Amino acid sequence: MVQPKIAPSMLSSDFANLASEAERMIRCGADWLHMDIMDGHFVPNLTIGAPVIESLRKHTQAYLDCHLMVTNPIDYVEPFGKAGASGFTFHVEVSKDNWQELVQKIKSKGMKPGVSLKPGTPVEEVFPLLEGENPVEMVLVMTVEPGFGGQKFMPEMMDKVRVLRKKYPSLDIEVDGGLGPSTIDLAASAGANCIVAGSSVFGAPDPAHVISLLYKSVENAQNSS
Ligand SMILES: O=C(CO)[C@@H](O)[C@H](O)COP(=O)(O)O
């Protein structure tokens, strides 16, 4: 059985108070903190880079689950490793030629390698990255177009999750975009175990309650499968 992980997306936090927002999420029961790294090129939004991860790392021991929405992920491995990132998830759409080198470099810097795919990318494109000597250790299935928080969950992406769960029973499968109490059961029953949630957690009067609902949904789905 794969461990459920709830990862609030810090994109929805108050960036001016990132350290205290991170601490608040951990106090509310978050397992990981999801960090959205956007370069203004791969996606039409610009967020944070390694210096912010380095600053945050001074204030928390939490697992920093970094999602690199960038055109040249290889350029970010060294700085993110140094900054204290825990997971480094890159996009398959920009890594077809160098994913082996990328995975090796991520691991050598002590980070967990993951691969992500946009809604329009067929799931088969990540299969090669899950085979062989140096596989990725997580697949992040985007359930919205990457770039912005607060978008509507795309239920049709659950086919990708089902295919991955069937083929790789012990793989960490993460979903990201539009997840909250009204959509979690679809993702959990499809087989996702790592759940990223931004606006549904940060916008709730009781974030701890939402985090526990998300966690329980994954647990229940696993117990009944
Ligand atoms: O990567 C992204 C957006 O590109 C996400 O991490 C969102 O930030 C999730 O936010 P919600 O859809 O949960 O509000």
Automatic annotation (TrEMBL):
Reactions catalysed: D-ribulose 5-phosphate = D-xylulose 5-phosphate
Leader sequence residues: none
Chain segments annotated as coiled-coil in the UniProt record: none
Residues the entry annotates as binding a divalent metal cation: 34, 36, 67, 176
Annotated positions binding substrate: 9, 67, 147-150, 178, 198-199
EC class name: isomerase
Co-factor note (free text): Binds 1 divalent metal cation per subunit.
Requisite cofactors: Fe(2+); Mn(2+); Co(2+); Zn(2+)
CDD domains with a match to the protein in the record: RPE
PANTHER family for the chain: RIBULOSE-5-PHOSPHATE-3-EPIMERASE (PTHR11749)
Protein name: Ribulose-phosphate 3-epimerase
